[in-house]
Amino acid sequence: MIHPLWHRFPMVYQQLEQIQQRLEHVAVLREPQVHALIQQQINAGGKMLRSGLMLMLARLGNPDNDDLITAGAAIEALHLATLVHDDVLDHADLRRGSDTVSAKSGNREAIYAGDFLFAIYFQLLSEQNPATTDLATNARVMKHIFMGEVDQNGPSAPLIPSVSEYLKAIAGKTAALFALATYTGATIGQLDFTEKKAAYRFGRQLGMAFQMIDDLLDYTQTTATLNKPVLEDLHNGIVTLPLIYAYQNVPEQLAPMVGTAAKIAANSDRIAAIVSEHGLPQARQLATRYTDKAINALAPLPDARIKQELRKLTQQLLQRDH
Questions:
Q1: Got the DSSP string for 113-143?
Q2: Comparing C-alpha atoms, which of 163, 178, 185, 156 is closest to residue 68?
Q3: Keywords, A to Z (predicted)?
Q4: Contact, 199 vs 301, CB < 8 A?
Q5: Which of 37, 152, 153, 301 has the most CB within a 10 Å radius?
Q6: Within the chain, which residue ranges are assigned CATH 1.10.600.10?
């Protein structure tokens, strides 16, 4: 099932259906239970935002290229692999309203499943036309993704990072994959060098804003809306942008509750109440700034209806509730 977000883009919707089918076809594991859980996640109604953006960028140039389906499936495989591994690190039980692989089958099986999806990503890359497959950029982005995770979760990562440290982490763990998707669309769509650079910048800035909004929603929405537990980061002792700002603004209120990850988890409800007043407004302001940066990055791209739609979609993602 393709997310309703794409209903107003019939051609993109049809291609996303093909991408989903392609990924279903290649993501076949001999272990029945893990296979079923991966297939469940593929079909769980995720936004497919990264591959959808790839398709939209390609429509600014040449959208009639069979490599788009393969490239979209590769991006979705890479994204899903990172989610499966994230769920292990975050002890998450729900993803897209369904049991995570780690919750259902255990952490070891989830690591295997994530590694398998990384292998699928490389397989799909190898099946694309070499002329439209920038392996160096793909490799660089993968490195950024992993380094972003280490920046956030590594043994030397600060418990309460600065805003700049937070931005560095999400530039890797989230924004890099958005940038890869938009750059890939521009490359396969045969846009020129300047336009491909603009597409990469657009994806990066949009990815930054997207992660900031995700972190905001963890404080403002319900489990039913998000299809996953709320305050999940706090319950895992993870500090994101709203708490960083709140700690800067009222350290005397928060210091007794944030000395360790365990303390953060134990005091999550009290912390959330303070963050709502002293951290959320600034976090939303910064997300709005990055949304504006993403829209401005579209300027060098060809003037077309799809460019206007990209602007609207970027604003819509800022206002989303899940």
A1: HHHHHHHHHHHHHHTS-GGG--HHHHHHHHH
A2: 185
A3: Magnesium, Metal-binding, Transferase
A4: yes
A5: 37
A6: 1-133, 134-322
Q: What is the pLDDT of residues 166-216, one digit of tens each?
A: 999 999 999 999 999 999 999 999 999 999 999 999 999 999 999 999 999
What's the whole-model pTM score? 0.93
Report how far residue 94's alpha carbon sits from residue 55's, in angstroms, rounded to the nearest whole number: 28
Cβ pair 125, 139 in contact under 8 A: no
Gap between the Cα atoms of 51 and 74, Å rounded: 9
The domain 1-133 is classified under which CATH number: 1.10.600.10, 1.10.10.10, 3.40.50.720, 2.120.10.30? Answer: 1.10.600.10
- Separation between Cα atoms, residue 319 and residue 210, nearest integer Å: 10
Instruction: Report phi then psi at 99, rounded to 5.
Output: -60, 135
Largest CA distance in the chain: 58
Percent of the chain at pLDDT exceeding 70 = 97
